[in-house]
Amino acid sequence: MKALQTFILAITVFALGFGCSKEDAKKKAEPDPDPVPAAASAKVFFPAPDPMGVNLEDLIDVELGDVIEAFPGGYLRGYHFQTENCCKKYSCADGAVTCEADLRVCADDDDANAITSVVPVPIPTSMIPFDLSTIGFTGDTLHLETVFCTGKPRMISQVSGWMATPVDVPRSVSDSEGLRSETDAFAEVQVYHATQTYFEHIRSLLGPEFCLRGSSMKCNTDGTAVLDANGQPELSFHIATNLLMPKIDQSSLATIGQQVAFLGRGASADNPVLIEDYARLDNAAFIPSMEGDPSDVPPELAILLDMVTRPYDFNVYFQGNRDFAYDGDVVFHEFTHAVIYTLAPSLHSLGVDVWGSHAEPGSMNEGWSDYFAASFTDSSVTGEYSGEGIRDADNDDACPSSIVGEVHQDSLPWSGALWDMRKAVMNNLGALGVDALDQLLLATIALSDNDETMARQAGRIIDLIGLDDTLSDYADDATSAFAAHGVTGCERVRALSIVGVDGSVALDTVAWLQQPGPSSVGLSNMAPSVAQLRIEVPDGTPGFTLSWHQGAGGIFGMGGEAAPPGVLVHEDGPIAWNYNGGQASPRNTNGDILPFDPTDTANQPVLGTPDANGEATADFTVALTPECTVRTFFVSLASTDSDITLKDIEVVLDAQEICP
User: Fold this and answer.
1) What is the helix (H) or strand (E) element at residue 459, kind and residue range?
2) 419 phi and psi angles, rounded to 5 deg
3) Per-domain residue ranges for the chain?
4) Phi then psi for 423, rounded to 5 degrees?
5) Is the omega angle on the peptide bond into residue 120 within 30 degrees of 0, that is, cis?
6) CB atoms within 10 A of CB 51
7) What are the beta bridge partners of residue 141?
8) Per residue, what are the HEC states of 497-544?
9) Which pTM was predicted?
10) pLDDT mean by block of 10 residues, the chain; 660 residues
C-alpha cells in the first residue's frame, strides 16, 4: 500500500513477558544431544491487535500452517512463505569480521562480534539543495556512510513453538521500547500466520492447487512446493518485516552540515559523513521482482534501493508509528496485490483516454486489494490498527468528484461499488453467496486487458453475474452499484465556477490532482491532466486567472525546480484527447485538432520560487474580449516533463464590465 495515511493512537504495552528472553532463546539454540522438533504452536493477534494498542491478553493460540519442521534454534520458514527482519547489526556465520549478505546472521547490540550494517553513498553536490561551499566544502561529491537494514530472519524456534513477545511502541513514547519494536521477532510470527491463513482462504476460492506466479513461489501442478535436493523449497514467497529507511531528510541536514563544517567529513570515502539513525515509514507494499537499478533513480542513490530490488516478488512491511506487519487488514491487502499480479501480470497502473490521463488500472488493483481484504474479515475498513481506518470500502465516493489521479484515492469508487454488490448478496445469500461473488470477481481479474478501465471491467462483471447460476439475480444490483459510484459513463470534468440563472457565481476548489509525466502514461510529447476543469464566466467578464500550488520535487523531498505544465484553454465543449504513435493531441468535439504547444511560454503559468517543501505557486491568466453572455471554458493541463502534484486549484474571475 503506497503513502498510507495513518494517525497516531495511544499505545499501551502490557509487560506480561510470556515469551522467552534473549538469553533463554540462546540457551535453546545450543546443540541438544537428543533434539526434539519445535512445535508449530504460536501466539498471535488475529486479525490484528485492538486499535487502542497492543494488549497481550488479546493473543490467541494457533498452529502455524505449512511450516517446515525445525529443531529449537531454527528460523521460521514455511513451504510457501519465509520471513525476514531488519537486522541493524549482524555477525558473520564463518566468524569473519566482515562478510557478504549471504553469510550474515542477525546480531544484537551486546553480541561480542556484532557488526553495524552500513553502506556507502556518494552524492554529487549538484543533487543537494543547498550550497556546501558556504560551509567550506569544495569537492563535487559528498561521501556518506549510512546505517542500512540487512534483511535476515530473527525469529528462533523453541521446543514449545514459535513464541515471542509483541512490542509496538513509537520512539517518541519510549526510546528503549521503540528500539525493541524496530527489530522485534514477533512481527515475523504475526505476518507469517496472517499471510498463510489468507493464502488458504484464496485457495478455497481458486482451488487448492493455486500458487503465486513463478517469481513469487515455485510450485508443482498440485500446489505443493517444489523442493531442492535438500528437501527445502526452491522459492517460497518472501515477507520482509520491520523495514526501516536511513534517516536522510530535512531534519538531518543540520547534522550533515555540522560534520562537514566542524569535523571535515564528507570529502572522501575514508572519512564520510555518518548517518547513524533510522527513520520509520508508515507504509507496506507488494514489490514485484526487479533486478538492476530503477531508471528514474539517480545511480548514486541506487544502493539505497538494494532492499527493494530483488530477483523475486515479495511483500514488505515497514515499521511506522505502528508496525504494519501486525495489522491483518494490511497483510491481506498486500498479499492480494501478489494474487492480482499472478492473475493479471501485465496490468498497467496508468492509462489515457478521451478525457486525458487516468489511474484506473492501478486504482482497480488497490480497490480489489481493499475489497478482498475487507470481504475476508467481513469489515469494510482497512487498517484499523496501523491507522485510524486508512480506507473504507463502504463509501459514497464517485467519479469524477473523488478522482485525483492517485491510485489509492481513485480506488474508492471501485471498492465502494464492489462492497455495495457484496452487501446485496450477503443480505440474501449469506456467506456462501459472498464466496461465489468473490470467486467471480477473481475470475474477471484474470480476463483484464493490460490497459483495463473501470467501465470495461464493470461490463465483464455484470455479464458474468448474469450467467452465474447463483448470482444471476444480482446483475441489476451490480449495474446500479457501478452507476452510483460513477464507474460507468464518467466524464472527468471538475467545475471551478458555475454561473446561476440569476448571474451569481459559485466557486469551487479542486484540492488535489496528480499530474503524470509523459513517460508515466507511455507517451513521448505530453501527458494530459487526469481531469479537465470547467470554468463558467458571467456576461461582461474580461478575463480570469487559474492558480494552484505544485510540488517541485528535489532530493530529500526539498527544493528542486518546478516544471511548468502547459495550459490548454478551449471554449464551448470539452477537449477530446487523441493518441497516435505515442503522441497526444487535443481535438474539439468535431474531431478538429486544437493547436497547442505546451512548451510555449505563452501557454505556461508563471511560477513562484519553490519553498522549503518544494512547492511553488502557479498562475495562468486568460484575457477575454468581454461578451454579454455566459461563456464556458474547458481547461486541460499537460506535462512535458515529470509528474507533478497540483494542490488548491481555483479560479479568480476579473470584475465584470457592464453590458448594455
Assistant:
1) helix 454-467
2) -70, -35
3) 1-27+64-88+149-244+280-343, 351-484, 493-653
4) -60, -40
5) no
6) 17
7) 124
8) EEECCCCCEEECCEEEEEECCHHHHCCCCCEECCCEEEEEECCCCCEE
9) 0.91
10) 27 25 39 76 97 96 96 95 96 89 90 91 82 89 94 94 96 93 97 98 98 97 97 97 88 85 94 94 93 62 78 95 97 98 96 98 98 98 93 98 97 98 98 98 97 98 97 98 96 97 96 95 97 97 96 49 89 95 96 96 94 86 95 97 94 90
Half-sphere exposure of 219 (CA within 13 A, CB side): 18
**At which residue does the C-alpha cell 513464541 appear?**
163
Q: Which amino acid is at 34?
A: D
Query: Which phi and psi angles does 558 have, rounded to 5°?
Result: -130, 150
The runs of H, that is alpha helices, within 151-292 are: 175-181, 186-206, 253-263
Q: Hey, what amino acid is at 589?
A: T
**Domains 351-484 and 493-653 are alike in CATH topology:** no
Q: What is the DSSP string of 354-418?
A: TTEEE-HHHHHHHHHHHHHHHHHHT-SEE-TTTSS-SEESS----TTTT--S-HHHHTHHHHHHH
Closest CA to 41 of 70, 63, 73, 65: 63
| Rounded Cα–Cα distance for residues 443 and 439 (Å) | 6
In 3D, which of 565, 578, 584 has the Cα closest to residue 522?
Answer: 584
**Short-list 251, 278, 273, 262, CA closest to 144:** 273
Looking at residue 345, the DSSP 8-state letter turns out to be T
CATH of 351-484, one of 1.10.10.10, 1.10.287.110, 1.10.390.10, 3.30.565.10: 1.10.390.10
- List for the chain the helix, strand, coil content (%; round to 5): 30, 25, 45
Residues facing 75 on adjacent strands:
156
Q: Yes or no: is domain 493-653 CATH 2.60.120?
A: yes
